[in-house]
Amino acid sequence: MNVERALQTLRRINAFSSTKRGITRLVYTDVYAEALYDFEKLLIQENLSVRRDPVGNLIARREGADPRLPAVACGSHLDTVVEGGAYDGTLGVAACLEVIRTMNERGLVTRHPLELIVFAAEESSRFGVATIGSKAMAGLLDGKRLANVRDRDGVSLAEALRRMGLDIGQIHLARRRRSELKAFFELHVEQGPVLESRGKTIGIVQAIAAPTRYVIRIDGKAAHSGTTPMAYRKDALAGAAEVILAVERAARRYEGKGAVATVGACRVQPGVMNVVPGSVELMVDIRGTARPAKAALARALEAALARLQVDRGLRAEVNVLSDEDPVQLDRELAALIEAICRKRGISAMPMVSGAGHDAMNMARLCPTALIFIPSQGGLSHHPDERSSPEDIAAGLAVLYDAIVNLAEVIPRQPGRGETA
Ligand SMILES: [Zn+2]
User: Fold this and answer.
1) Do 246 and 363 fall into the same domain?
2) In a shared domain, residues 27 and 155
3) In this structure, which residues have their CB less than 5 angstroms from ion ligand 1?
4) Is 235 labelled as part of a ligand binding site?
5) Which structural domain, as residue segments, surrounds residue 134?
6) What share of the chain has pLDDT > 70, as a percent?
7) 172 assigned to a ligand binding site
8) 63 plus 158 within the same structural domain
9) Which of 30, 186, 226, 327 is the most buried (most CB within 10 A)?
């Protein structure tokens, strides 16, 4: 395994960014398409057969000795948030290529085919919906919900797909059968401070917290801020403030029980100083690995909204953007990774992922493992996101061993002029 070469791949991909500060590669944009096209060239150089599925996932295949066997897959994503980091997703993709390059150099033949998958639209930063590509592959896509989804510039998902030469009416065809895949591996940066603070190199993810996301519209009545007596007001922002604090109080009560909640965005209409706020849009994110705790936080949110109606005469409309269940990852693969780390003398620990990943959707399709390496300072979705070359080397080694193990290397037959 060649860490420097993997980092070269990383830098080559990250040359495609629409901002100078950090990395910005929003899915289905021109710069994203260019990065994908450029990466495809590297895959073809490694003699992989490459295809794009109907949702824009890039799938590269290294044939196995028995092509009918299910493939051992690995992958991650190349789309980013606005002014994001160089490692989130991109590292996992670059690592998969490095694994395949190394196998090619060593002339390894495996019984099972290998697949490298670059998932489309992992980040929710463009359309407000995360992991669209892997959801489509796992048959988890809600087509009706996606029909009305637009980005900040008003471009619909359908239009963005069309510009990529894709048809939103066909994306359900990206779904794959369980029998096609033997296992899926994703190497990813932790995006949190746990590994670094515990002094461990590898995080073996046991479960992924799933987000439930709401857009909540609270309607009151816009009115003159000078002439409207307090008793006559229907102030949507004051009501929203109560909801925000109620969500925070509930999440604090559930601290340590496996769920957290955040109101991360608030848009006020008309949003001027001398008008009583007429309507407010809140974006709420509830996530956790414990279903009961998540459900309790959702109930606390509903209760707070119901109180608005009673106490303030405000109307609340709840729109569920996404609602996903926490996902348990494969125990056997986790045990395999633990054994690999022990054998290589790499420190490792079990952990849960607070962030969603493509692995959580792939886990519905086949046994899945998610491998974390430390994020320096726990920083992610930030231009200063970084992981050390030493930690990346460890991640590469573990990923390589795991894939080679599952794909079942065929011992080379001693040929003429060659000794065993
Ligand atoms: Zn990611």
Assistant:
1) no
2) yes
3) 88-89
4) no
5) 3-208+326-407
6) 98
7) no
8) yes
9) 186
ipTM (interface pTM)? 0.95
Count of the separate structural domains present in the chain: 2
Query: Does 123 count as an annotated binding residue?
Result: yes
Position 419 in a domain: no
Q: Please give the mean pLDDT across all residues of the chain.
A: 95
pLDDT of 420:
44
At 215 the pLDDT is: 96
Q: Give distance in angstroms: CA of 399 to centre of ligand 1.
A: 17
Q: Is the pLDDT of residue 418 over 60?
A: no
Q: How far is the CA of 88 from the centre of ligand 1 (A)?
A: 5
User: Does the annotation place 188 within a ligand binding site?
Assistant: yes
Give me ligand 1 centre to Cα 123, in Å.
Answer: 7
Taking the C-alpha atoms of residue 244 and residue 283, their distance in angstroms, rounded to an integer, is: 10
Q: Among the three residues 266, 288, 323, which one is the final residue of a domain in this structure?
A: 323
Residue 335 lies in a domain: yes
Write the CATH number for 226. 3.30.70.360
Distance, in Å, from the CA atom of 353 to the CA atom of 403, rounded to the nearest integer, reads 21
Lowest-confidence region among 235-244, 281-290, 321-330, 362-371: 321-330
Q: CB within 8 A of 269, min separation 6: which ones?
A: 222, 236, 277, 278, 279, 280, 281
